[in-house]
Amino acid sequence: MHASQEPRTDAAVINLLGVRELGLQPYQPVWQAMQDFTNNRSPDSADQLWLLQHEAVFTQGQAGKAEHLLLPGNIPVVQADRGGQVTYHGPGQLVAYVLLDVRRLGFGVRELVSRIEQSLIELLASYGINAAAKADAPGVYVDGAKIASLGLRIRNGRCFHGLALNVDMDLEPFARINPCGYAGLRMTQMRDLIGPLAGPLELSEVSARLRAQLVKHLGYLEQTTLTGEQTTLSGGIQAL
Hints:
Blueprint: H1 10-14, E1 16-25, H2 27-40, E2 47-54, E3 57-60, E4 77-79, E5 87-89, E6 93-101, H3 102-105, H4 109-125, E7 132-134, E8 137-142, E9 145-155, E10 158-166, H5 190-194, H6 203-217, E11 222-225, E12 230-233, E13 236-239
Parallel strand pairs: 1-2, 1-11, 3-4
Antiparallel strand pairs: 2-6, 3-5, 6-10, 7-8, 8-9, 9-10, 12-13
Helix pairs in contact: 4-6
């Protein structure tokens, strides 16, 4: 169901998730746009989900330790303001940023993380991949190898940052770090688990299925694709 253009009641705003599909983007302009949206949103702002891929980059969490960054080489490193340790983003990985008023939704942090993890688990199950979460290490795993990472920041009851799902990418850069702060942590991806006989693995289809799962598990009754409110800048994007 798509949103109408009529003024919305408070209940309608709570039940609505706006979705932006941003394609391949550099990290820092999107990070800045997330911060701007979070800082400037009002109590009546609908929540948003941004779906995209990033150009190759390592990002450190705000408490990230330098010893987990081993040999970054020519891949840039950005000190971000999310939780967690160092991770890698690159083409072929689906990133979903969840810009939510968690106070309004009534979720605690652990419940929010669990709902996101369950969205990923059910998405992967739709491709025949048996995945699970770990109570002591946020993210989603397949036979002990990590397939999806989570890192959130909550400010004044509103969260930003989100998740990264390895779909069909070059995993080599993960060997240059201790992923999420764990030395020797194996990383995996959907392509390697479903095999070449499954046919093309379209990131757009994975994105659509993830979107549906997040709408379901975060409890929204309505979603709409946001267009026309996004201004393309020379340095990246600005979400209005």
